[in-house]
Write a structure and sequence with these properties.
Elements: H1 8-25, E1 28-31, H2 42-51, E2 56-60, E3 69-71, E4 76-78, E5 82-85, E6 93-96, E7 106-108, E8 117-126, E9 129-132, E10 140-141, E11 145-147, E12 150-159, E13 162-166, E14 174-177, E15 181-183, E16 186-190, E17 193-195, E18 198-202, E19 209-212, E20 216-218, E21 223-227, E22 230-232, E23 240-241, E24 244-247
Parallel strand pairs: 1-2, 2-5, 3-6, 4-7, 5-8, 6-8, 7-11, 8-12, 9-13, 10-14, 11-15, 12-16, 12-17, 13-18, 14-19, 15-20, 16-21, 17-22, 20-23, 21-24
Length: 248
């Protein structure tokens, strides 16, 4: 029997069909509750998206407009490709409760060298606290958000977040970086506002205390691009640190 030859055009069509099927298979999870956890919560939606391989999307029920999502237990961790689409930065606030233990709001990190693709838009991220406890020998990184992946943030406000490190023993250094954001990945911010965020670092004696990036702290390996984004009202000498680029 003669063997059929597949033309390059046919291979392209097959590849396009596979890509389309993968896109169609992406699942959408809807947040319908302002609770910290449980069915319909943002935490539950992200957990379901993390557990499902491939790109997914988390959206919010319009009925939640104007109702803050107040976190009381822990940070929200994204470990897989995800688009997180809020209701608008004036309509959706995600914040840490004042009485909650210290934690940042978002951590974007799958724990591998390969980068996942994450998009976050249309929300306000408020009152995150990355806190290094005395004697822990850990740096305080990213009060509002820590990113180690390929992350695009669009039309979002980060307000009132803090990275704080306080050491009480001799010979113990204290480092705090990124009141709003600590970035070691590839980060793009567009049409966003970063304001009134801070870093705080202090130690007792025979030690070094150093805080940088009340707005954004970027590692040497990280890349940050700012597009139509304002970074203002910080409470530490430097607003941003390391390599950042901007475009209008």
């Amino acid at each position: 029997m003669a063997r059929l030859r597949r033309s390059p055009a046919l291979w392209l069509l097959l590849a396009a069909a596979v890509a389309l099927a993968a896109h169609v298979a992406a699942e959408v999870f809807t947040v319908s509750s302002t609770a910290d956890n449980g069915p319909g919560s943002l935490r539950d939606a992200i957990a379901q998206a993390n557990a499902r391989p491939g790109a997914d999307e988390v959206i919010f029920d319009p009925a939640l407009a104007g109702q803050p999502i107040v976190l009381t237990t822990d940070q929200l961790t994204v470990t897989d490709h995800l688009t997180l689409t809020g209701l608008g930065q004036d309509l959706l606030t995600i914040e840490r409760a004042a009485t909650a233990p210290a934690f940042r709001i978002f951590e974007i990190d799958d724990g591998t060298a390969a980068h996942i693709q994450v998009q976050l838009s249309g929300m306000k991220i408020v009152h995150g606290l990355a806190y290094s406890r005395p004697g822990s020998s850990e740096d305080a990184l990213g009060g509002g958000l820590l990113n180690a992946e390929d992350l695009v943030i669009e039309s979002t406000t980060l307000f009132g977040n803090t990275a704080q490190n306080t050491e009480t023993g001799d010979n113990e250094d204290a480092f705090a970086f990124g009141g709003a954001i600590f970035n070691s990945g590839v980060l793009t911010l567009g049409n966003s506002t970063i304001t009134v965020n801070s870093v705080s670092a202090s130690c007792l004696a025979y030690c070094r205390a150093h805080g940088r990036g009340g707005g954004i702290s970027n590692t040497d390996a990280g890349q940050v691009t700012l597009r139509n984004t304002t970074v203002t009202a910080w409470t530490y000498p430097d607003l941003v640190d390391s390599r950042l680029s901007s475009s209008s």
